[in-house]
Amino acid sequence: MRSPRVLAAGLLLVAGITMVAACSSGGSTPAAPSGDAVLVEGQQVYSQNCAGCHGASGGGGYGRKLAGVVTVKYPNIDDQIALITNGKGAMPSFSKKLTSDQITAVTRYTREVLGTN
Ligand code: HEC
């Protein structure tokens, strides 16, 4: 029979791993309208590259809040695309990691889906 202490340690370990997993996945991102392929791609790019810092629904975390903010702060979408492409301060540059189509898709996702549903 196993000692209760070993069992307790095992349970703690499992709880710890579950918490770390929950944190790094950051919950699920708001769904893009299924009829818009670009926004669907944008959601995928966002959940894989941005949600970890900006939060699953763009509420912020390590990175700034994006939901409902970006359209006000960047009335011209090109300015926001440039920021994501080139990075700024602690915000990494995505010019090598994502194609310009992917950057446009994720930018549209942050403007048209996050903060609107
Ligand atoms: C390593 C964490 C990190 C990741 C990953 C990240 N960001 Fe950021 N982001 C930041 C930080 C920190 C800032 C604030 C930069 C500053 O102004 O100094 C920021 C700023 C921004 C801004 C400007 C916000 C404002 O108020 O001006 C946008 C837009 C943005 N990020 C979009 C994205 C997108 C889209 C992705 C995924 C492709 C992404 N970020 C990935 C950390 C991150």
From TrEMBL:
<feature type="domain" description="Cytochrome c">
    <location>
        <begin position="37"/>
        <end position="114"/>
    </location>
</feature>
<keyword id="KW-0408">Iron</keyword>
<dbReference type="Pfam" id="PF13442">
    <property type="entry name" value="Cytochrome_CBB3"/>
</dbReference>
<dbReference type="InterPro" id="IPR036909">
    <property type="entry name" value="Cyt_c-like_dom_sf"/>
</dbReference>
<dbReference type="GO" id="GO:0005506">
    <property type="term" value="F:iron ion binding"/>
</dbReference>
<keyword id="KW-0479">Metal-binding</keyword>
<dbReference type="InterPro" id="IPR008168">
    <property type="entry name" value="Cyt_C_IC"/>
</dbReference>
<dbReference type="InterPro" id="IPR009056">
    <property type="entry name" value="Cyt_c-like_dom"/>
</dbReference>
<dbReference type="GO" id="GO:0020037">
    <property type="term" value="F:heme binding"/>
</dbReference>
<keyword id="KW-0249">Electron transport</keyword>
<dbReference type="InterPro" id="IPR051459">
    <property type="entry name" value="Cytochrome_c-type_DH"/>
</dbReference>
<protein>
    <submittedName>
        <fullName>Unannotated protein</fullName>
    </submittedName>
</protein>
<dbReference type="GO" id="GO:0009055">
    <property type="term" value="F:electron transfer activity"/>
</dbReference>
<keyword id="KW-0349">Heme</keyword>
<keyword id="KW-0813">Transport</keyword>
